[in-house]
């Protein structure tokens, strides 16, 4: 393993941490409707759990309402039940073949709770990135011990890994700030 491999590996894993953070932030609702909120809702379909988007058409009726149109009529009740039982706190209303999912307005107190959740997600992502930095530095120390690289090379590589870490932490801070601003806008 070379210094370039260590850096490339660390950067790839840090990128995955950012993607994971984006996915978890997209599940936190902001009061405005967007079909991505229902992405992690799964329904029973012919004996297997599948994402809602694979059995129904999701679209926005207006800024506060999502419409879910099942591709098969018999799926309407199953979909409605799955949305109701999800941890999103939504109350779908069935209207024949169409299911309307109104987004309840967020209270000020709930908005503050959600910003704390967002900060927690951001902190978890930062911890993950810092752990990856530690792992990369340990791999560099191992390379020095095995006499594959010099100590000067190790020091330069550790500086590069730190710059990489700083870049990803700044990206995490930016994502968290954007999500907080989105939540706090009424």
Concise account of the structure shown:
The chain is α+β, with helices and mostly antiparallel strands and 186 residues long. It has helices at residues 3-26, 75-85, 108-145, 151-184; strands at 42-45, 48-51, 56-62, 65-70, 93-95, 98-102. The strands form two sheets. The protein has a four-stranded antiparallel sheet with strand order 3-4-6-5. A two-stranded antiparallel sheet has the order 1-2.
Describe this structure in words.
There is one protein chain. This protein has 186 residues and is of the alpha+beta class. The chain folds into 2 domains: 3-27 and 107-184, Orthogonal Bundle (Topoisomerase I, Chain A, domain 4), CATH 1.10.132; 35-102, Gyrase A, domain 2 (2-Layer Sandwich), CATH 3.30.1360.40. It is built from 4 helices and 6 strands, in the order αββββαββαα. The chain has helices spanning 3-26, 75-85, 108-145, 151-184; strands at residues 42-45, 48-51, 56-62, 65-70, 93-95, 98-102. The strands form 2 sheets. It has a 4-stranded antiparallel beta sheet. A two-stranded antiparallel sheet has the order 1-2. α1 (3-26) runs antiparallel to α3 (108-145) and α1 (3-26) runs parallel beside α4. The N and C termini lie far apart (52 Å). The model has no long low-confidence stretch (mean pLDDT 86).
């Amino acid at each position: 393993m070379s210094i370039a491999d260590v850096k490339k590996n660390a950067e790839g894993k840090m990128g995955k941490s950012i993607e994971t953070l984006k996915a978890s932030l997209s599940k936190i609702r902001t009061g405005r409707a967007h079909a991505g909120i229902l992405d992690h809702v799964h329904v029973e379909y012919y004996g297997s759990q599948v994402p809602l988007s694979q059995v129904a058409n999701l679209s926005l009726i207006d800024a506060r309402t999502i419409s879910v149109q099942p591709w098969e009529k018999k799926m309407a009740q199953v979909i409605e039940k799955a949305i109701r039982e999800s941890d999103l706190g939504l109350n779908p209303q069935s209207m024949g073949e169409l299911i309307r999912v109104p987004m309840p307005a967020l209270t000020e107190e709930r908005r503050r709770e959600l910003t704390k959740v967002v900060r927690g997600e951001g902190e978890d992502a930062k911890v993950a990135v810092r752990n990856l930095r530690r792992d990369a530095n340990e791999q560099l120390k191992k390379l020095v011990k095995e006499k594959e690289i010099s100590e000067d090379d190790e020091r330069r590589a550790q500086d590069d890994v730190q710059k990489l870490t700083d870049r990803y932490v700044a990206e995490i801070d930016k994502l968290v700030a954007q999500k907080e601003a989105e939540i706090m806008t009424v």
